[in-house]
Amino acid sequence: MTRSTTDSTTVLTSMYAAEAAYMAAGGPGRASFELLAPYFATDVVLHQAGGLPYGGTWRGHAGMEQFFLAMARTWESFELLEQRFLATGETSVVHTLVRVRAHASGRELTFPILQTITVTDGRVSEVHPFCWDTAAIAAACAPLPEGPAAKEVVVS
Q: Which 8-state DSSP code applies to residue 52?
């Protein structure tokens, strides 16, 4: 392995561990973003698909804090089921399978996310997450018209 590969893998592994600690400490609005800040460049850019409830471009540490708050407003629970590093280096590719429960509908959804993550000078500088079906994700977040919200949806 080259040094850059080892460094990006270490940075990403540490960042995901810090994200888990952040969520365990109460997450957005309760835990301090300072748990995550050391892993993100001050000018980090996160690009989320516009069709998602938290879609748009989020910039800098303040933008990341706002992104995590938007995620917390959207998802009652957010669980990483499986994570694989498909490529590592200055730009890494990470495949993550998640299970979530939407606040608005109570619906559970399981879906994969593929992220390209750029690490510059030992910090995450840019993230491009790709979801297979943004329409299904957005639909799961819409309030149900009537009846119980216990339906689970799997996006493949």
A: S
- Output the CA angle 68-73-22, nearest 5 degrees: 35
pTM: 0.85
CA atoms within 13 Å, Cβ hemisphere of 142 = 11
Question: What is the DSSP-derived secondary structure letter of residue 39?
Answer: G
Q: What is the mean pLDDT of each run of 10 residues along the chain (156 residues)?
A: 63 92 85 93 97 96 94 90 92 95 93 96 96 92 68 56
Torsion of CA 29, 35, 37, 39, to 10 degrees: -140
76 vs 2: CA distance, rounded Å:
40
Whole-number Å distance between alpha carbons of 129 and 136: 16
Query: Are the CB atoms for 115 and 96 separated by under 8 Å?
Result: yes
Q: What is the residue whose two structure tokens read 């819409």?
A: 142
Cα–Cα distances in angstroms (integers) from residue 131 to residues 19, 65, 125, 143, in the given order: 20, 21, 20, 21
**Under a CB-based contact definition with an 8 Å cutoff, are residues 49 and 55 in contact?**
yes
| Residue (of 1, 2, 9) closest to 119 by Cα position | 9
